[in-house]
Design a protein that fits this description.
The complex is a heterodimer of chains A (about 110) and B (about 120).
Chain A lengths: L3 E4 L2 E5 L4 E7 L7 E6 L6 E6 L5 E4 L2 E6 L4 E6 L8 E8 L7 E3 L3 E6 L1
Parallel strand pairs in A: 2-11
Antiparallel strand pairs in A: 1-3, 3-8, 4-5, 4-9, 6-7, 7-8, 9-10, 9-11
Chain B lengths: L4 E3 L2 E4 L5 E6 L6 E7 L5 E8 L14 E5 L5 E5 L8 E8 L4 H4 L1 E2 L3 E5 L1
Parallel strand pairs in B: 2-10
Antiparallel strand pairs in B: 1-3, 3-7, 4-5, 4-8, 6-7, 8-9, 8-10
The chains are: A mainly beta (about 110), B mainly beta (about 120).
């Protein structure tokens, strides 16, 4: 069974700063690794996902860095804005299937003015 | 509809009662997933439907939990003889082809409170 550790549990960043959230997993997986963003009272929304054969993917202010050998990947939010304040979840595909994900426990990000 | 719709939004039930949670996926999406989100925890996989294939029920925590999907569209998650530990937000998601990690859309969830 896949194990996922996400850190930190909570994060406070000033507007304009860089937010970094980390995830580590145990079992090798071969499909896309996604990050989800969840606002209070809403379901999670897919934010960005990376293929395991790529070391970095950037979409706007959001970047995933992926270290396959270390089984770690991280989300970087550049120029963080108050509107980015949300809970972020990493997820890892279960071996052999993209239909079942193991999620991290979430990081609550607060971006202050 | 435009997105995944879940009902009710909130449900308070007494311990021991049965509850039914409903999910209307995005039209045309063949895959449907149920996840559970407990306070301070990540999302926990419950069950996955893909087209006419037998569902993957490997995440259901006990035989009190069951789910069905009628006509390849609407799904109902049923919890029998509810317990306090069943209190959580139950999330439904759907995707076009079964790639949860790149194309799934979640509903807003049903918050279940067992008292």
């Amino acid at each position: 069974q896949q194990q996922v550790k996400q850190s930190p549990q909570s994060l406070i960043v000033q507007k304009g700063g860089i937010s970094i959230i980390n995830c580590a997993y145990e079992n090798t997986a071969f499909d896309y690794f996604p990050w989800y963003q969840q606002f209070p009272g809403k379901g999670p929304a897919l934010l960005i996902a990376i293929r395991p054969d790529v070391s970095e993917k950037k979409e706007g202010r959001f970047t995933i860095s992926f270290n396959k050998s270390a089984k770690q990947f991280s989300l970087h939010i550049m120029d963080s804005q108050p509107g980015d304040s949300a809970t972020y979840f990493c997820a890892v595909p279960n071996t052999g299937t993209a239909s079942k994900l193991t999620f991290g426990t979430g990081t609550r990000l607060q971006v202050t003015l | 509809g435009a997105g995944v719709s879940q009902s009710p939004s909130n449900k308070v039930t007494e311990k021991g009662k049965d509850v039914e949670l409903r999910c209307d996926p995005i039209s045309g999406h063949t895959a449907l997933y149920w996840y559970r989100q407990s306070l301070g925890q990540g999302l926990e996989f419950l069950i996955y439907f893909q087209g006419n294939s037998a569902p993957d029920k490997s995440g259901l925590p006990s035989d009190r939990f069951s789910a069905e999907r009628t006509g390849g569209s609407v799904s109902t998650l049923t919890i029998q003889r509810t317990q306090q530990e069943d209190s959580a937000v139950y999330l439904c998601a759907s995707s076009l082809n079964g790639a949860m990690n790149t194309e799934a859309f979640f509903g807003q969830g049903t918050r279940l409170t067992v008292v």
